[in-house]
Design goal:
The protein has helices at residues 2-31, 33-43, 50-63, 70-88, 102-111, 123-131, 151-158, 193-198, 200-206, 218-226, 237-243, 292-302, 335-347; strands spanning 92-96, 116-120, 137-144, 148-149, 163-171, 175-178, 188-191, 211-214, 231-235, 247-249, 259-266, 276-284, 307-315, 318-329, 348-358. By secondary structure, the chain is α/β, with parallel strands linked by helices. The strands form three sheets. Strands 1, 2, 3, 4, 5 and 11 form a six-stranded mixed beta sheet that branches. Strands 8-7-9-6-10 form a five-stranded mixed beta sheet. Strands 13-14-12-15 form a four-stranded antiparallel beta sheet, sandwiched between helices. Helix 3 packs antiparallel against helix 4 and helix 6 (123-131) runs parallel beside helix 7. The longest helix has 30 residues, at 2-31.
């Protein structure tokens, strides 16, 4: 027993020494930041560089620190970079609040803990905060693999004044939270419309008599259910952790691969990385004419560009006419995409690039 105690103390001493060494290395890293700031300023580069961050994280994960888990490497260095950015200049990030929403979690995944997070009540408010300079960046959900496009986010992008800078595809695993573990005693289920839609079948099968109540966010749902003994909320484990509402059922989404695509918006888009996506909006001058959209899509195809997604939204002030949004593979500065945009410009009433940005690549 005594020998084991001595060995444990020795091991703890070694760990303490390693931790102290890590702190010294972090200090050395931080001491380089003034030079980094000066170099960025001389080249007119932004403080936040998602492409550099992604490349650095990928390199570190590829190198590895076996047996330290690769995802832990990514998480640790994401926070180191987040703290380093905050030392260069405080970063403000707007998200669809309140705290505990999936948008909040997505923002944390992108930026870490260091930025100042500003909660907004609507997606248009998130975009407007960036447009007016109250925030450096904003994070909005634009598409769900189960429920499809998030129309308020699309409309906020179409309002203009911002560019898509980055995307993140976040797995969405909803849980049921309540003060009671007895499902038969639940009379109400609160959540955002998107979350209720993503769990529609599970709720119909397991809580057929419960009233489904839509809320402004999943966090508001958790707050409502916290004070109602006959209610539950559908939301994230993150919200459960923040607000202390127990999880009574996990992974209640109808589709195992349920995920949401989030966009980071800024006042400028990204430089080419070689694996990019460009999102555009265009309106056809003759969209009432037979074959008008088909001919526009042929222009994109003939330029050698792959289109991965298209949707339409009503044009303000023009009944039964539409604005089309499309995702193209490639960067707007690359010849094929530039050619497609030029062809489309000649056929349309206007083409607007909403952003060219790195395509999201899931980590291993």
């Amino acid at each position: 027993m005594y020998k084991r105690a001595v060995d444990l103390e020795a091991l703890r001493h070694n760990i303490d020494a390693i931790d102290n060494e890590l702190l010294s290395l972090l200090a050395r890293r931080a001491q380089l930041l003034p030079q980094v700031i000066a170099a960025k300023q001389s080249k007119g580069l932004p403080v936040v560089d998602p492409e550099r961050e992604r490349a650095l994280l990928d390199r570190l994960v590829e190198r590895g620190a076996d047996p330290f888990p690769s995802e832990a490497i990514r998480a640790v260095f994401r926070e180191i970079m987040s703290a380093s950015v905050s030392l260069q200049r405080p970063i403000r990030v707007s998200f669809l609040g309140p705290p505990g929403t999936w948008s909040h979690l997505a923002a944390r995944q992108m930026f870490g803990f260091a930025p100042q997070y500003l909660e907004e009540s609507t997606m248009s408010a998130v975009v407007d905060a960036v447009r007016r300079g109250r925030s450096d960046h904003g994070v909005i959900p634009v598409e769900n693999s189960t429920e499809g496009s998030v129309s308020p986010a699309v409309d906020a992008l179409l309002a203009g004044g911002v560019m898509i800078r980055r995307e993140l595809i976040l797995p969405i695993e909803h849980c049921l939270m309540s003060r009671t573990s007895d499902l038969s005693g639940l009379r109400r289920v609160f959540s955002h419309a998107q979350a209720l839609g993503q769990c529609r079948n599970w709720l119909a099968e397991n809580l057929p008599s419960a009233q489904l109540v839509q809320t402004a966010s999943t966090t508001v749902a958790v707050q409502e259910a916290s004070s109602d003994p006959e209610a539950a909320a559908v939301g994230s484990p993150f919200a459960s952790e923040l607000f202390g509402l127990p999880i009574v059922r996990e992974r209640i989404q109808d589709h195992a691969g349920n995920a949401t695509r989030f966009l980071m918006v800024s006042t400028e888009d990204a430089s080419p990385t070689g694996d990019d996506r460009t999102t555009i909006a265009f309106a056809l001058s003759d969209d009432g004419e037979k074959g008008a959209l088909r001919r526009a899509l042929e222009d994109i195809e003939e330029a050698g560009v792959n289109m991965t997604r298209i949707e339409s939204r009503p044009r303000p002030g023009a009944s039964w006419r539409y604005v089309f949004l499309a995702d193209l593979v490639g960067h707007r500065t690359e010849a094929p995409v530039a050619s497609a945009l030029d062809r489309l410009e000649r056929r349309s009433e206007g083409v607007r690039v909403l952003g060219s940005y790195p395509r999201f690549v899931p980590s291993d």
